[in-house]
Amino acid sequence: MRLSTEHTGSTFTAHLAERLSFADHPAFRTLIEDIARAKPSSCVFELSELQSIDSAGLGMFLIALDGAKKGGWSLTLRNAQGHVKSLLQLGRFDKLLQLE
Amino acid sequence: MHLALPNLKLSSRELRDPGLSPATDDARILVVDDSPTMLTVIVSTLRRHGFVNVVSATDGQEAMEAILARAPDLIITDLLMPTVDGFELCRWIRSHESYRDIPILAETGLGKSEGSVDAFASGATDLIMKPINTLELIARVKVHLERRRLLDNLLEFRRHMEMELASARSMQHSILPSSEAIEQIERDYALDIGQYYKASQGLGGDIWNVIDFGTGVVAFFAADFSGHGVSAALNTFRLHTFLDRDMNTAVEPDEFLRRVNVFLCNTLPLGQFATIFCGLIDVEAGELRFASAAAPPMLLCHADGQCKTLECSGLPLGVSLDADFEAHKCAFPVDSQLLLYSDALIETPDPPESIYTPDSLRQTLQGYAGLPAAEVVSRIVTGLYERSDEKPEDDLTVVVIRRLARQQRGDAA
């Protein structure tokens, strides 16, 4: 996974690129901690450059959602494409998360 | 008051060089040199520094005999010797599997770089310059013995882990349906079932089963736990235990998913889940009833080769207690075949480079109408391995269930 973040006002944006997989678990945990420290009111995962994701990667979104509920921030997954979009639809993640 | 002190006698071991670990002072060291003076210098230096197990040989031939009698932990050898020289001795040692890891320190004269290169090419591990610097000799011996000890530990650890994994792998295969159980169901229900299962790391998070509850329908499921390796494999055992204990009667597929979801929601840690496709084949009614929790799009093909993608969307299991699952049904006439698979089939290599996509898999399967189930599975899996430079990163399960006319059973078998 290639990751870049920006914190503007009350919004924290994480740009996730390439592939999100099991191996990215430590980096993703750090990202969740960074978001919690920033105390935003909303967080956006920008996924337009994320080409693929595995089941562990989808699990990380659930971990992020848990962090959002505990930290009182909203979580939005934005611009998922191709394979990532298909898996989010297949798993009905729209019932759990805000997808744009 | 008088205290009697014990009579202390220090053995050579207790007087050893404090830099030696217990594993190195007992090391068996073979010194090979045709010069009696050099032999005496090296052997006595080693003994003086606490090495109590030193043997010597005066040429390569004698060294070979000593090695065959008992392999040493380290060898120090001269290169230029009569009969069998040091180069030939090195080559002979390296040509034997059981001696390949023994460190060999070759004595060489200063400035003889050509001989040094030949010594390494012949299998020497390191060089000792002549005239011998005793401190350097001892330092090099210690380093190579320690390195050998660490290597042995690693190899032993690896051997141990491989045995553990082989045992665990065998246990995991035991929770998959046995070939006898599959054959019984094939006979009783005029079905033809082909299957392939391969864990990506020895152990995997895929599990599938086909069960006859004796109610006239065949129940089956294919599950894939998130992640792979040991943690995912442990989850397959959790599921197997739950199903064995609490799900020993046939229930409709959507109800099956609800019950398993409650179990997994109460069992799995945050971030872990399972995708599952489950179904019931009612042979008498010619019907397939199924439900899915985010399983990859399974395929159903009919005798004319037309294939359709089954509705498989749904929340994965173990994520939300509020999840509900839709029941579906469709015709499953004679000569229909159902393809079940885990996502590694359509995600190898990583998307978008994957060999199969759900759509290309459907087209591929259309060309396999009428083939025995095992042949269909074999062609699909072979197609993946032959066309992909990468092995699946995740566990791979492929199952084909084909319905036969009663009289076809013998032909398919």
Tell me what the structure shows.
The complex is a heterodimer of chains A (100) and B (413). By secondary structure, chain A is of the alpha/beta class. Chain A has a single domain, classed as 2-Layer Sandwich (Transcription Regulator spoIIAA), CATH 3.30.750. Chain A contains 3 helices and 6 strands. Chain A has helices at 25-38, 55-71, 82-90; strands at 2-8, 11-20, 42-46, 50-53, 74-78, 98-99. In chain A, strands 1, 2, 3, 4, 5 and 6 form a 6-stranded mixed beta sheet that branches. In chain A, β2 (11-20), α1 (25-38) and β3 (42-46) form a beta-alpha-beta unit. The two termini of chain A are 21 Å apart. The mean pLDDT of chain A is 94. With 413 residues, chain B is α/β, with parallel strands linked by helices. Chain B folds into 2 domains: 22-156, Rossmann fold (3-Layer(aba) Sandwich); 175-412, Phosphatase 2c, domain 1. Chain B has helices at residues 22-25, 36-48, 60-69, 86-94, 113-122, 134-174, 179-189, 230-246, 253-265, 358-366, 373-387, 409-412; strands at residues 29-32, 54-57, 74-77, 104-109, 126-130, 191-198, 206-212, 217-225, 274-282, 287-293, 299-301, 307-309, 328-331, 337-341, 396-403. Chain B has a 5-stranded parallel beta sheet, sandwiched between helices. In chain B, α3 (60-69) runs parallel beside α4 (86-94). The longest helix of chain B is centred in the middle third of the chain and has 41 residues, at 134-174. The model of chain B is unreliable at 1-19 (pLDDT under 50).
